[in-house]
Amino acid sequence: MGLAALFASTFCELCGLFMFGPLLLFTLKARGLDTAEVGLISASQWLGMVLATPFTAGWVRRLGPQGALQASGVVPLLALLGITLSTYAPLWAGLYLIAGAAGALRWIVAESTVAELAPAAWRGRIVGLYETMVGATFVLGPALLALIGTEGAGAEASRWTALALVALGVLLTALVPKREHPADEDVRLGWHGIFDALRAAPAVMVVGFVGGFFEAGLASLLPLFGLAHGFPVAQAALLVSASGLGSALMMVPVGLAADRWSLERIWRWCARVNLCATLLLPLVGLFPAAHPLAWGIAFAWGGAGGALYTLAMVDIGHRHQGVALVNATAVLVMSYTLGGLCAPAFGASALQFAPIWGLPILLSLVAGLGLRALVKH
Q1: Which of 72, 193, 246, 349 could form a disulfide with 188 if both were Cys (CB 3.0 to 4.6 A apart)?
Q2: Where are the domains of the chain?
């Protein structure tokens, strides 16, 4: 019952967030902001996560896992409500940053709980199932946005629908039973704990960064990429759904493979797929007839990027328990969110200043970094 409530509450909250995010991009673009400015405002959510993540283990110890989950739902709800009721773009950036900071709490405590409770022989499949649920929200959020509308009255209805989903997630969180992590005096918190976990598995954290860059960060950038290359607004939003579909369909098979075969081997194949898909990207910019290829590339990015993160979570679940697992999860989430921050911030600038080649070059460098880290792992 506890895991079911956790799955359901996270599902509703993320559907609302991934519905709200692309709509915010379109709203800012309609106000006349250039692509780089829109990308920076979008990145503020990921900046909030990065800033808060080192301290989440301490907050989980103070509030308990259930209290942290409650706070991580209420604060983003209030932040999105503030964005909906105001018209000042700099305030939106600040509120989006606060929502991201609170979201780090949910992310870390939910991920670490799933990894800790899963039996070792089934950990890949169970973590993969959880990540499949998360990946489904990448699909359904933007799909609901495209269905309800992105302009005029449709956009207003979409905003309130997104808020209702986040509120439902808060209510479902109350059904998660209280659970205390055992105290572990040997495990350090804050930045000391972050550095301990980073030293223990640096390659895993590099892979987490690459996974966040391609799965979560590019989800914020794909609508802008579509608009820059002549896609209609609704089709540009559905590029995010293609990425999310890759996440949703690939996590359980990848987790099953990790339970049966070498984790490192599966990891390397995912990194190779990620790089190969990236090398096809210039075709979309050079040839309008190749536009349908963008959906396949986005699908590969979502699947391979999400798999890199999922396998990293399985790896640290094998290595750690209790507070040490919370710390290791925090480091993985921090590296993932750094990737999510860098993708829209640098990718939007690359897209603006070199529409055809800037983004492919940037993405190829990041994909190559992930593959190199795994080869040396």
Answers
A1: 193
A2: 2-172+189-375
